Amino acid sequence: MEPVEAGRSRAVLAGASRRWVRGLPWALAFVLSVALLPTTIVVLTADYGLNGAVAGGLAVAQAAPLLLAVVRPLQAWYVVFLGDVAGALALLSVDFEERLLWPFPPMELVGYVGLCLALGLRERRRTLVLVWLATAAANVGLGFAAPHGFGARELLFTILGGVALLLGGVLRDRYEVQRRLAEQETISEAERGRRTLLEERARIARELHDVVAHHMSVITVQADTAEYRLRALPPDVREEFTSIASTARESLGEMRRLLGVLRNEEAHGELVPQPGLAQIGQLVEATARTVGPVEFSPCEAEVPEAVGLSAYRIVQEALANVVRHAPGAATRVSLSVDGPVGDGDDPDDRADRDGGGRGERLTVLVVNGPPPRPRDGPLEVGGTGHGLVGMRERVRLVGGTLDVGPLPAGGFRVAAHLPLTEKDFT
Protein backbone atom coordinates (compact mmCIF):
# COMPACT_ATOMS: atom_id res chain seq x y z
CA MET A 1 0.00 0.00 0.00
CA GLU A 2 1.01 3.58 -0.53
CA PRO A 3 -0.50 6.93 0.48
CA VAL A 4 -3.59 8.15 -1.30
CA GLU A 5 -1.63 11.05 -2.75
CA ALA A 6 1.22 8.85 -3.98
CA GLY A 7 2.12 8.50 -7.62
CA ARG A 8 -0.57 6.58 -9.48
CA SER A 9 1.90 4.59 -11.57
CA ARG A 10 3.28 2.71 -8.58
CA ALA A 11 2.17 -0.84 -8.00
CA VAL A 12 -0.27 -1.74 -5.23
CA LEU A 13 1.67 -2.52 -2.01
CA ALA A 14 4.85 -1.07 -3.56
CA GLY A 15 5.56 0.78 -0.32
CA ALA A 16 5.64 -2.40 1.80
CA SER A 17 8.89 -3.09 3.62
CA ARG A 18 8.96 -6.82 2.85
CA ARG A 19 9.77 -8.03 -0.62
CA TRP A 20 7.24 -10.86 -0.66
CA VAL A 21 4.45 -8.43 0.23
CA ARG A 22 5.40 -6.15 -2.68
CA GLY A 23 5.28 -9.13 -5.04
CA LEU A 24 1.99 -10.49 -3.69
CA PRO A 25 -0.33 -8.34 -5.89
CA TRP A 26 1.51 -9.41 -9.03
CA ALA A 27 1.31 -13.06 -8.06
CA LEU A 28 -2.42 -12.88 -7.30
CA ALA A 29 -3.16 -10.93 -10.50
CA PHE A 30 -1.22 -13.47 -12.57
CA VAL A 31 -2.97 -16.45 -10.95
CA LEU A 32 -6.42 -14.88 -11.42
CA SER A 33 -5.74 -13.97 -15.04
CA VAL A 34 -4.32 -17.39 -15.94
CA ALA A 35 -7.07 -19.26 -14.09
CA LEU A 36 -10.07 -17.13 -15.10
CA LEU A 37 -9.27 -16.73 -18.79
CA PRO A 38 -9.77 -20.39 -19.81
CA THR A 39 -12.40 -20.96 -17.14
CA THR A 40 -14.55 -18.12 -18.46
CA ILE A 41 -14.35 -19.46 -22.02
CA VAL A 42 -15.29 -22.99 -20.95
CA VAL A 43 -18.16 -21.93 -18.69
CA LEU A 44 -19.66 -19.45 -21.14
CA THR A 45 -19.55 -21.93 -24.00
CA ALA A 46 -20.29 -25.25 -22.27
CA ASP A 47 -22.74 -24.17 -19.55
CA TYR A 48 -24.34 -21.05 -20.98
CA GLY A 49 -24.11 -22.02 -24.65
CA LEU A 50 -22.51 -18.80 -25.81
CA ASN A 51 -20.63 -18.63 -29.11
CA GLY A 52 -16.94 -19.52 -28.73
CA ALA A 53 -15.60 -16.37 -30.38
CA VAL A 54 -17.83 -14.15 -28.26
CA ALA A 55 -16.91 -16.09 -25.13
CA GLY A 56 -13.21 -15.70 -25.94
CA GLY A 57 -13.51 -11.95 -26.42
CA LEU A 58 -15.45 -11.56 -23.18
CA ALA A 59 -12.92 -13.71 -21.30
CA VAL A 60 -10.04 -11.52 -22.47
CA ALA A 61 -11.88 -8.30 -21.53
CA GLN A 62 -12.82 -9.67 -18.07
CA ALA A 63 -9.58 -11.45 -17.06
CA ALA A 64 -6.59 -9.89 -18.84
CA PRO A 65 -7.01 -6.35 -17.32
CA LEU A 66 -6.46 -7.85 -13.86
CA LEU A 67 -2.72 -7.60 -14.54
CA LEU A 68 -3.14 -3.88 -15.23
CA ALA A 69 -5.02 -3.54 -11.92
CA VAL A 70 -1.75 -3.93 -9.99
CA VAL A 71 -0.53 -0.60 -11.35
CA ARG A 72 -3.67 1.19 -12.58
CA PRO A 73 -6.71 -0.39 -10.92
CA LEU A 74 -9.17 2.33 -11.92
CA GLN A 75 -8.36 2.01 -15.64
CA ALA A 76 -8.59 -1.77 -15.33
CA TRP A 77 -11.98 -1.40 -13.63
CA TYR A 78 -13.38 0.49 -16.64
CA VAL A 79 -12.45 -2.37 -18.97
CA VAL A 80 -13.57 -5.19 -16.67
CA PHE A 81 -16.82 -3.46 -15.70
CA LEU A 82 -17.76 -2.85 -19.33
CA GLY A 83 -16.77 -6.44 -20.17
CA ASP A 84 -18.97 -7.81 -17.37
CA VAL A 85 -21.96 -5.72 -18.45
CA ALA A 86 -21.40 -6.73 -22.10
CA GLY A 87 -21.22 -10.36 -21.03
CA ALA A 88 -24.53 -10.09 -19.17
CA LEU A 89 -26.19 -8.60 -22.23
CA ALA A 90 -24.66 -11.28 -24.47
CA LEU A 91 -26.10 -14.02 -22.24
CA LEU A 92 -29.61 -12.64 -22.92
CA SER A 93 -29.22 -13.89 -26.49
CA VAL A 94 -28.89 -17.54 -25.46
CA ASP A 95 -31.15 -19.92 -23.59
CA PHE A 96 -29.43 -21.14 -20.39
CA GLU A 97 -30.71 -23.07 -17.42
CA GLU A 98 -32.42 -21.26 -14.56
CA ARG A 99 -29.97 -22.66 -12.03
CA LEU A 100 -27.10 -20.72 -13.60
CA LEU A 101 -26.19 -17.38 -12.09
CA TRP A 102 -27.04 -14.25 -14.08
CA PRO A 103 -26.21 -11.44 -14.90
CA PHE A 104 -22.67 -12.16 -13.67
CA PRO A 105 -21.41 -15.77 -13.62
CA PRO A 106 -19.23 -16.95 -10.69
CA MET A 107 -15.87 -16.50 -12.48
CA GLU A 108 -16.75 -12.86 -13.16
CA LEU A 109 -17.57 -12.38 -9.47
CA VAL A 110 -14.16 -13.75 -8.46
CA GLY A 111 -12.28 -11.44 -10.84
CA TYR A 112 -14.39 -8.41 -9.90
CA VAL A 113 -13.85 -8.95 -6.17
CA GLY A 114 -10.07 -9.06 -6.69
CA LEU A 115 -10.27 -5.89 -8.79
CA CYS A 116 -12.35 -4.07 -6.13
CA LEU A 117 -9.81 -5.03 -3.48
CA ALA A 118 -7.04 -3.41 -5.55
CA LEU A 119 -9.22 -0.32 -5.98
CA GLY A 120 -9.80 -0.09 -2.24
CA LEU A 121 -6.05 -0.24 -1.57
CA ARG A 122 -5.30 2.56 -4.01
CA GLU A 123 -8.15 4.98 -4.71
CA ARG A 124 -9.78 7.72 -2.64
CA ARG A 125 -13.01 7.19 -0.74
CA ARG A 126 -15.00 9.30 -3.17
CA THR A 127 -13.83 7.12 -6.06
CA LEU A 128 -14.70 3.96 -4.17
CA VAL A 129 -18.22 5.22 -3.48
CA LEU A 130 -18.73 6.09 -7.15
CA VAL A 131 -17.44 2.65 -8.21
CA TRP A 132 -19.85 0.92 -5.83
CA LEU A 133 -22.78 3.07 -6.99
CA ALA A 134 -21.98 2.23 -10.62
CA THR A 135 -21.79 -1.46 -9.69
CA ALA A 136 -25.14 -1.36 -7.89
CA ALA A 137 -26.81 0.63 -10.67
CA ALA A 138 -25.65 -1.80 -13.36
CA ASN A 139 -26.66 -4.81 -11.25
CA VAL A 140 -30.14 -3.47 -10.51
CA GLY A 141 -30.65 -2.14 -14.04
CA LEU A 142 -29.83 -5.52 -15.59
CA GLY A 143 -32.21 -7.14 -13.10
CA PHE A 144 -35.18 -5.67 -14.92
CA ALA A 145 -34.19 -7.78 -17.97
CA ALA A 146 -33.60 -11.01 -16.02
CA PRO A 147 -34.84 -13.99 -18.08
CA HIS A 148 -35.60 -16.17 -15.01
CA GLY A 149 -36.46 -13.60 -12.38
CA PHE A 150 -34.24 -11.53 -10.11
CA GLY A 151 -33.49 -12.52 -6.52
CA ALA A 152 -30.97 -12.04 -3.72
CA ARG A 153 -28.30 -14.22 -5.30
CA GLU A 154 -28.27 -11.98 -8.35
CA LEU A 155 -27.14 -9.13 -6.05
CA LEU A 156 -23.90 -10.91 -5.14
CA PHE A 157 -22.06 -8.73 -7.66
CA THR A 158 -23.02 -5.60 -5.70
CA ILE A 159 -22.62 -7.10 -2.24
CA LEU A 160 -19.25 -8.79 -2.75
CA GLY A 161 -17.90 -5.81 -4.70
CA GLY A 162 -18.91 -3.45 -1.88
CA VAL A 163 -17.31 -5.69 0.75
CA ALA A 164 -14.05 -5.81 -1.22
CA LEU A 165 -14.03 -2.04 -1.69
CA LEU A 166 -14.69 -1.50 2.02
CA LEU A 167 -11.99 -3.97 3.09
CA GLY A 168 -9.40 -2.41 0.80
CA GLY A 169 -10.29 1.09 1.99
CA VAL A 170 -10.01 0.09 5.65
CA LEU A 171 -6.61 -1.54 5.08
CA ARG A 172 -5.40 1.54 3.22
CA ASP A 173 -6.58 3.91 5.96
CA ARG A 174 -4.91 1.74 8.60
CA TYR A 175 -1.67 1.82 6.67
CA GLU A 176 -1.93 5.59 6.31
CA VAL A 177 -2.37 6.05 10.05
CA GLN A 178 0.61 3.82 10.80
CA ARG A 179 2.77 5.61 8.24
CA ARG A 180 1.93 9.04 9.63
CA LEU A 181 2.58 7.88 13.17
CA ALA A 182 5.98 6.56 12.09
CA GLU A 183 6.76 9.86 10.38
CA GLN A 184 5.69 11.78 13.46
CA GLU A 185 7.88 9.60 15.66
CA THR A 186 10.82 10.21 13.34
CA ILE A 187 10.21 13.96 13.42
CA SER A 188 9.85 13.90 17.20
CA GLU A 189 13.09 11.97 17.56
CA ALA A 190 14.88 14.46 15.31
CA GLU A 191 13.44 17.35 17.33
CA ARG A 192 14.57 15.74 20.57
CA GLY A 193 18.08 15.33 19.15
CA ARG A 194 18.09 18.92 17.93
CA ARG A 195 16.87 20.19 21.29
CA THR A 196 19.53 18.18 23.10
CA LEU A 197 22.19 19.62 20.78
CA LEU A 198 20.98 23.17 21.35
CA GLU A 199 20.92 22.65 25.11
CA GLU A 200 24.47 21.33 25.03
CA ARG A 201 25.63 24.22 22.89
CA ALA A 202 23.96 26.67 25.26
CA ARG A 203 25.64 24.96 28.22
CA ILE A 204 29.05 25.21 26.54
CA ALA A 205 28.38 28.87 25.76
CA ARG A 206 27.47 29.58 29.40
CA GLU A 207 30.59 27.84 30.67
CA LEU A 208 32.82 29.68 28.22
CA HIS A 209 31.26 32.96 29.21
CA ASP A 210 31.59 32.25 32.93
CA VAL A 211 35.18 31.02 32.67
CA VAL A 212 36.67 33.36 30.07
CA ALA A 213 34.56 36.48 29.62
CA HIS A 214 34.83 37.62 33.21
CA HIS A 215 38.60 37.30 33.32
CA MET A 216 39.05 38.98 29.92
CA SER A 217 36.86 41.87 31.07
CA VAL A 218 38.95 42.24 34.24
CA ILE A 219 42.16 42.27 32.19
CA THR A 220 40.73 44.96 29.92
CA VAL A 221 39.63 47.17 32.80
CA GLN A 222 42.92 46.78 34.68
CA ALA A 223 44.97 47.56 31.60
CA ASP A 224 42.83 50.59 30.72
CA THR A 225 42.97 52.05 34.24
CA ALA A 226 46.63 51.26 34.94
CA GLU A 227 47.83 54.75 33.96
CA TYR A 228 45.35 56.32 36.40
CA ARG A 229 45.99 53.91 39.27
CA LEU A 230 49.78 53.76 39.00
CA ARG A 231 51.72 56.99 39.32
CA ALA A 232 54.52 58.07 36.97
CA LEU A 233 54.27 55.24 34.46
CA PRO A 234 56.94 55.43 31.77
CA PRO A 235 55.58 56.01 28.26
CA ASP A 236 56.63 52.57 27.04
CA VAL A 237 54.84 50.90 29.97
CA ARG A 238 51.72 52.98 29.35
CA GLU A 239 51.81 51.90 25.68
CA GLU A 240 52.17 48.29 26.78
CA PHE A 241 49.05 48.49 28.95
CA THR A 242 47.15 50.12 26.08
CA SER A 243 48.17 47.25 23.78
CA ILE A 244 47.10 44.68 26.37
CA ALA A 245 43.68 46.32 26.71
CA SER A 246 43.21 46.49 22.94
CA THR A 247 44.15 42.83 22.46
CA ALA A 248 41.86 41.76 25.30
CA ARG A 249 38.92 43.70 23.81
CA GLU A 250 39.46 42.12 20.40
CA SER A 251 39.64 38.64 21.92
CA LEU A 252 36.53 39.31 23.98
CA GLY A 253 34.64 40.48 20.86
CA GLU A 254 35.59 37.37 18.89
CA MET A 255 34.61 35.13 21.78
CA ARG A 256 31.21 36.83 22.09
CA ARG A 257 30.54 36.28 18.39
CA LEU A 258 31.43 32.62 18.84
CA LEU A 259 29.13 32.36 21.84
CA GLY A 260 26.31 33.87 19.78
CA VAL A 261 26.71 31.11 17.20
CA LEU A 262 26.79 28.45 19.90
CA ARG A 263 23.62 29.76 21.53
CA ASN A 264 21.64 29.97 18.31
CA GLU A 265 21.80 27.24 15.67
CA GLU A 266 20.65 29.65 12.95
CA ALA A 267 23.09 32.42 13.85
CA HIS A 268 25.98 33.02 11.46
CA GLY A 269 27.91 35.54 13.50
CA GLU A 270 28.19 39.22 12.81
CA LEU A 271 28.97 40.39 9.30
CA VAL A 272 32.41 41.79 10.15
CA PRO A 273 35.49 41.70 7.90
CA GLN A 274 37.68 38.66 8.48
CA PRO A 275 41.39 39.23 9.13
CA GLY A 276 43.80 38.58 6.29
CA LEU A 277 47.34 39.33 5.13
CA ALA A 278 46.93 43.05 5.88
CA GLN A 279 46.34 42.38 9.57
CA ILE A 280 49.33 40.07 10.05
CA GLY A 281 51.62 43.08 10.52
CA GLN A 282 49.54 44.27 13.49
CA LEU A 283 49.69 40.75 14.91
CA VAL A 284 53.49 40.72 14.61
CA GLU A 285 53.78 44.14 16.29
CA ALA A 286 51.65 43.02 19.24
CA THR A 287 53.79 39.91 19.64
CA ALA A 288 57.01 41.90 19.39
CA ARG A 289 55.94 44.05 22.33
CA THR A 290 55.57 40.86 24.36
CA VAL A 291 58.54 38.67 23.45
CA GLY A 292 60.95 41.05 21.75
CA PRO A 293 61.82 41.93 18.16
CA VAL A 294 60.20 39.83 15.44
CA GLU A 295 61.53 40.00 11.88
CA PHE A 296 58.66 40.34 9.44
CA SER A 297 58.70 40.04 5.64
CA PRO A 298 55.24 41.08 4.37
CA CYS A 299 53.60 40.22 1.07
CA GLU A 300 51.46 42.70 -0.86
CA ALA A 301 49.91 40.15 -3.24
CA GLU A 302 46.15 39.83 -3.63
CA VAL A 303 45.04 36.44 -2.31
CA PRO A 304 41.63 34.77 -1.95
CA GLU A 305 39.80 35.62 1.26
CA ALA A 306 39.92 32.03 2.52
CA VAL A 307 43.69 31.88 1.97
CA GLY A 308 44.25 35.20 3.73
CA LEU A 309 42.20 34.13 6.73
CA SER A 310 44.02 30.78 6.93
CA ALA A 311 47.40 32.54 6.75
CA TYR A 312 46.41 34.95 9.52
CA ARG A 313 45.24 32.15 11.83
CA ILE A 314 48.36 30.08 11.18
CA VAL A 315 50.64 33.00 12.03
CA GLN A 316 48.50 33.82 15.07
CA GLU A 317 48.79 30.29 16.46
CA ALA A 318 52.51 30.04 15.65
CA LEU A 319 53.29 33.33 17.42
CA ALA A 320 51.12 32.31 20.36
CA ASN A 321 53.27 29.18 20.69
CA VAL A 322 56.40 31.36 20.66
CA VAL A 323 54.95 33.47 23.48
CA ARG A 324 54.06 30.37 25.49
CA HIS A 325 57.12 28.21 24.93
CA ALA A 326 60.00 30.41 23.74
CA PRO A 327 59.63 34.01 24.96
CA GLY A 328 62.52 36.20 23.90
CA ALA A 329 63.60 33.81 21.11
CA ALA A 330 64.65 35.23 17.77
CA THR A 331 61.56 34.95 15.56
CA ARG A 332 61.01 35.44 11.85
CA VAL A 333 57.68 35.68 10.00
CA SER A 334 57.78 35.57 6.23
CA LEU A 335 55.02 35.73 3.60
CA SER A 336 55.80 35.13 -0.06
CA VAL A 337 54.12 34.04 -3.27
CA ASP A 338 55.99 31.23 -4.99
CA GLY A 339 55.53 29.80 -8.47
CA PRO A 340 54.82 26.15 -9.21
CA VAL A 341 57.28 23.68 -7.77
CA GLY A 342 59.50 22.09 -10.45
CA ASP A 343 63.01 21.77 -11.76
CA GLY A 344 62.42 24.11 -14.68
CA ASP A 345 62.77 21.42 -17.34
CA ASP A 346 59.20 20.15 -17.16
CA PRO A 347 57.06 21.73 -19.95
CA ASP A 348 54.14 21.95 -17.53
CA ASP A 349 56.24 23.97 -15.08
CA ARG A 350 57.31 26.39 -17.82
CA ALA A 351 53.74 26.68 -19.00
CA ASP A 352 52.63 27.50 -15.47
CA ARG A 353 55.19 30.29 -15.16
CA ASP A 354 54.48 31.67 -18.60
CA GLY A 355 50.73 31.43 -18.15
CA GLY A 356 50.38 34.22 -15.67
CA GLY A 357 50.97 32.53 -12.32
CA ARG A 358 48.94 29.39 -12.69
CA GLY A 359 49.77 27.06 -9.79
CA GLU A 360 51.12 29.84 -7.49
CA ARG A 361 51.12 29.31 -3.76
CA LEU A 362 51.35 31.56 -0.74
CA THR A 363 54.12 30.38 1.57
CA VAL A 364 53.70 31.24 5.25
CA LEU A 365 56.86 30.72 7.28
CA VAL A 366 57.23 31.24 11.04
CA VAL A 367 60.60 30.24 12.52
CA ASN A 368 61.83 30.82 16.05
CA GLY A 369 65.10 29.89 17.70
CA PRO A 370 65.58 28.56 21.22
CA PRO A 371 64.76 30.88 24.12
CA PRO A 372 67.75 32.98 25.28
CA ARG A 373 67.65 31.42 28.75
CA PRO A 374 65.89 28.38 30.23
CA ARG A 375 62.59 29.12 31.94
CA ASP A 376 61.93 28.15 35.51
CA GLY A 377 58.73 26.47 34.38
CA PRO A 378 56.35 26.38 31.43
CA LEU A 379 54.15 29.39 30.87
CA GLU A 380 51.16 27.06 30.47
CA VAL A 381 50.55 23.64 31.97
CA GLY A 382 48.48 20.92 30.34
CA GLY A 383 48.42 22.10 26.74
CA THR A 384 45.86 20.38 24.54
CA GLY A 385 47.79 20.39 21.27
CA HIS A 386 44.73 21.74 19.47
CA GLY A 387 46.75 24.53 17.88
CA LEU A 388 48.65 22.28 15.47
CA VAL A 389 45.48 20.34 14.75
CA GLY A 390 43.72 23.60 13.87
CA MET A 391 46.58 24.59 11.57
CA ARG A 392 46.38 21.31 9.69
CA GLU A 393 42.60 21.62 9.29
CA ARG A 394 42.84 25.16 7.91
CA VAL A 395 45.55 24.14 5.45
CA ARG A 396 43.58 21.07 4.36
CA LEU A 397 40.44 23.14 3.73
CA VAL A 398 42.22 25.26 1.11
CA GLY A 399 44.09 22.30 -0.39
CA GLY A 400 47.55 23.24 0.87
CA THR A 401 50.35 21.52 2.76
CA LEU A 402 51.82 22.08 6.22
CA ASP A 403 55.30 21.29 7.51
CA VAL A 404 55.92 21.75 11.24
CA GLY A 405 58.59 20.48 13.57
CA PRO A 406 61.56 21.33 15.79
CA LEU A 407 64.87 22.59 14.38
CA PRO A 408 68.15 20.67 14.93
CA ALA A 409 69.75 23.61 16.75
CA GLY A 410 66.67 24.26 18.85
CA GLY A 411 63.54 26.23 18.16
CA PHE A 412 60.57 25.46 15.95
CA ARG A 413 59.52 25.91 12.33
CA VAL A 414 56.04 26.25 10.80
CA ALA A 415 55.78 26.30 7.00
CA ALA A 416 52.43 26.36 5.19
CA HIS A 417 51.94 26.34 1.41
CA LEU A 418 48.48 27.60 0.43
CA PRO A 419 47.27 27.46 -3.22
CA LEU A 420 46.07 30.68 -4.81
CA THR A 421 44.21 29.39 -7.89
CA GLU A 422 40.93 27.52 -8.44
CA LYS A 423 42.89 24.79 -10.20
CA ASP A 424 44.82 24.08 -7.01
CA PHE A 425 41.73 24.42 -4.81
CA THR A 426 39.97 21.68 -6.77
Search tags:
about 60% helix; 13 helices; 5-stranded mixed β-sheet; alpha+beta; single chain; 5 strands; Heat Shock Protein 90
Report on this structure.
The chain is α+β, with helices and mostly antiparallel strands and 426 residues long. It folds into 2 domains: 169 residues, no CATH class; 133 residues, Heat Shock Protein 90 (2-Layer Sandwich). Helices cover 62% and strands 8% of the residues. It is built from 13 helices and 5 strands. A 5-stranded mixed β-sheet has the order 1-2-3-5-4. Helix 4 packs antiparallel against helix 5, helix 6 packs antiparallel against helix 7 and helix 9 runs parallel beside helix 10. The longest helix is centred in the middle third of the chain and has 74 residues. It is rod-shaped and about 130 Å long.
Number of helices: 13
Indicate the multimeric state.
Answer: single chain
Helix amount, in percent?
55-70%
Average pLDDT taken over every residue: 82
Largest beta sheet, briefly?
A: 5 strands, mixed
Q: What is the tally of beta strands?
A: 5
Low-confidence residue ranges: 2-7, 341-358
What's the structural domain tally? 2
Secondary-structure-derived class: alpha+beta
Strand content: 5-15%
Side by side, the strands of the main sheet go 1-2-3-5-4
Gyration radius, in Å: 42 Å
Order of helices and strands: HHHHHHHHHEHEHEHEEH
Q: Characterize the overall form.
A: rod-shaped
Distance between the termini: 46 Å
